[in-house]
Specification:
By secondary structure, this protein is α/β, with parallel strands linked by helices. It has ten helices and ten strands. The strands form two sheets. It has an eight-stranded mixed sheet, with helices on both faces. Strands 4-5 form a two-stranded antiparallel sheet.
Length: 283
């Protein structure tokens, strides 16, 4: 039986990818951010998962506003980095696990989640930056990846509760798979930021840290927050953090936090990273 053994959340700030690609991670401004990810890199390298399910959002690079699925799952064997206007990032091709992805798709649809099936899909910084932050710059990513893209940029977006319930459905799908696989789930996006309008540059440290507290102990409380409340507190783009609830929904009610990191600013964005595993105390 496949098993989701742990999960992690991380911001996917596009500029961090450019800093990594340009060899600038040790510059004084950027160094504290990348130091904060060293425990995650070690943890993931030691854990050696077979598959990582990455919950992310596209930024009109792999998709366009002509077609905006609420939930899309990548069922292909590989996914190329998207061209985001200055050429694709020079990072490894993302290799998928098509057999598990198809199994998950069947299970999720039967579980009332109408997934858009992607047999071809380019992946942008929403997915590749988290992989770089968690793995560094390998010649190949050290695990298979199943991308699940969530619409959090084109109204109407799924609710926070729907994202949380998707995580629970993903766990059921994985645990019904007939091969022994060690699986990690990653929720990406956020934290607080807004890049346009009168509130451009918004960072709400108090809410960000409260959100992480509740994500750990009382995630159901976060599912009751409306879109408008999220936008008010963390900004129009910061609402991406509802995807962290998908990761959380795939874990037990009680979790242990193995690493927690929060930093401001990365230009005009707050950066967060949390690792959770099912609590040993409840085992």
């Amino acid at each position: 039986m496949a098993e989701i053994v742990a999960g992690f959340c991380t911001s996917h700030v596009p500029l961090l990818g450019r800093v990594i690609d340009g060899g600038r991670t040790q510059e004084p401004y950027w160094k504290p951010i990348f130091q904060g990810y060293e425990p995650t890199k070690k943890w993931l390298a030691d854990l050696k998962p077979d598959v990582v399910i990455v919950i992310y959002n596209d930024h009109a690079n792999g998709f366009s506003f002509k077609y905006t699925p609420t939930f899309a799952i990548g069922c292909a064997d590989e996914f190329n980095p998207a061209d985001e206007g200055h050429g694709p990032r020079h990072v490894p091709v993302v290799h998928g696990h098509s057999r598990l992805a198809w199994h998950m798709t069947e299970s999720l649809v039967a579980d009332q989640f109408d997934m858009t099936i992607m047999n071809e899909m380019d992946v942008d910084h929403g997915l590749t930056v988290p992989l770089s932050l968690a793995c560094g710059q390998p010649e190949a990513w050290p695990f298979k990846v199943i991308p699940i893209c969530v619409n959090v940029i084109q109204y109407p977006q799924p609710t926070a509760e729907r994202c949380y319930l998707l995580g629970k459905a993903i766990r059921r799908a994985v645990e019904s798979y007939d091969e022994d696989l060690k699986v990690v789930i990653a929720g990406t996006g956020g934290m607080s930021h807004q890049i346009h309008g009168a509130r451009s540059g918004l960072i709400n440290q108090k809410f960000d840290n409260w959100f992480i507290d509740k994500l750990t102990t009382s995630p159901a409380e976060l599912t009751k927050i409306s879109h408008a409340e999220y936008v008010r507190e963390v900004g129009a783009e910061g609402m991406e953090i509802i995807m962290w609830l998908t990761m959380r929904g795939a874990l037990d009610d009680n979790v242990d936090v193995l690493h927690r990191f929060y930093h401001v600013p990365a230009m005009n964005t707050a950066v967060g990273n949390v690792i959770m595993q099912n609590s040993r105390a409840s085992a």
